[in-house]
Amino acid sequence: MYWLELVEENIIYITIGLACMLIILFIINIILISKQRKLTKRYKKFMQGSNGESLEEIIREKFTDIDILKSDSKKLNQEIEKINENLTITFQKIGVVKYDAFKEMGGKLSFVIALLDKNNDGIILNSVHSSREGCYTYLKEIIKGESFLELSKEEKSALNQAINYKTIME
Predict the structure, then answer these.
(1) Which of 9, 96, 120, 151 has its CA at a distance of 20 to 30 angstroms from the CA of residue 24?
(2) What pTM did the predictor assign?
(3) Is Membrane one of the keywords UniProt gives this record (predicted)?
């Protein structure tokens, strides 16, 4: 009965400890009630005007919309890939040089245009203007940035401009 004597001697401390625990439990209970009310308000606001069936229908519609968006995104990606493939073979690099073909006789009415694709394949178009005889146009093929035919200095200049041309895709 030693423990009974120990309890009787320390009854005040035990009572104070139990009172403190009761106060702590009371505070925790108030906090939980407050949080539960907030959660109930949020739930009521979420469910306002809806029943379980209409909420389920809304969720189904959202999933259907997501499936449609995925399908459209896949189609758009395929179209973008086709566009990118086509861009590699379209003229996207340009070089232009105007010059006087007959040295101060006709003005700078002659010109060279270099048109290249992404791989530096394309053409050089040289238009030589002669005031008496008209205009002569020459076309030279460019493969990988080089011509099999000899190029004039104006044609070389236009070709270099086109090769060094920065495209939007770079």
Answers:
(1) 9
(2) 0.54
(3) yes
- Per-residue pLDDT for the chain (170 aa), expressed as one digit of tens each? 666 777 777 888 888 999 999 999 999 999 999 999 999 988 887 777 666 667 778 888 999 999 999 999 999 999 999 988 887 788 888 999 998 877 766 577 889 999 998 888 999 999 988 767 778 899 999 999 888 888 888 888 998 989 888 776 65
HEC letters along the chain = CHHHHHHHHCHHHHHHHHHHHHHHHHHHHHHHHHHHHHHHHHHHHHHCCCCHHHHHHHHHHHHHHHHHHHHHHHHHHHHHHHHHHHHCCCCCEEEEEEECCCCCCCCCCEEEEEEECCCCCEEEEEEEEECCCEEEEEEEEEECCEECCCCCHHHHHHHHHHHCCCCCCC
